[in-house]
Amino acid sequence: MTNDLPIRFLPQQLPKIYAMLKAGVLSSNSLTRPSKLPAMPVRKDDHISPASDELIDAYSEWTGAPAARYRDTVPAHFCSHWAMPLLAELGRLAPYNLTTLLNQGVHMVMHQPIPRGMPMTLEGQLVEVKEVGNRLRIHMRIEASIEGLGRCLDIDSYAAVLLGPRDKNTTSERVEPAFEATGSWSVDAKDGLRFAFLTGDFNPIHTVPAVGRRTATGSCILHGFGQLAKTWETLLNAGWDIQELDIRWVKPLPMPSGEVSVDVSPSIDADGQHALRVVSDHGMHLVGRFAGTKAAGAQAAGSAS
């Protein structure tokens, strides 16, 4: 992708921007947000029109995917575009101010490729909302289907709202498997805006330098789903396929960044999955695991910028 910002896609993002803004405004005001939790699980459905081929191509290029990979399909991680309005609608059913919501992790199961040019039906659920220590933990689920083809993708999204000061000791010791670098990627100072124009997520912490300078990193940070998308494509570029992925975000990535390494454990765990981590000079940003196999003879990929 060139250094230009893909501003031309802004009109396609307006419905998502409106949905996200509406959810944020309603949840931030005690008069308009719910006064108590509903009986769960709560179900909400949505019907999604297909994104334009030009938008999918530009998004895929930004992630580091070769042009031929998604000629007829949509990347699974493009759910950062089409799933977020429904997740926002589900999240605002909780009686809390969701403008402070933090994405913590996501679990994705791929059943079949998502074809281009076909509308999707989304079946969403607010599964659970519970207080754990100083946090409110929110679990939401979306099942995406294509009429006549069946279910394509399941997404379990986990988020949190801070109810008090951050815990100082939230990490626990664990035995790390051996990792091998499988590829890398990097971002520049404008990649938060690029991702926003491609997906509709204009959260100021990712896109407005004046807001970013007030964060602990001193700069705007890359969207969590931006990290996921580039990591996903780095794995595919190295010869891996992905049927299931379960990750959590552990540390913001400031922009610009140097090389961000995608590391995979050669061994598998008891569930047959490989451990995954994403690290840079700033620390570890993403951890998790995935189910997949590596093509015979595939070598570690180069960097994807």
TrEMBL record:
SUPFAM superfamilies assigned to the protein according to its UniProt record, in alphabetical order: Thioesterase/thiol ester dehydrase-isomerase (SSF54637)
Gene3D superfamilies given in the database record: Hotdog Thioesterase (3.10.129.10)
InterPro entries named in the record: HotDog_dom_sf, MaoC-like_dom
A Pfam family: MaoC_dehydratas
Domain MaoC-like stretches: 184-249
Protein name: MaoC/PaaZ C-terminal domain-containing protein
Species annotation: Paraperlucidibaca wandonensis
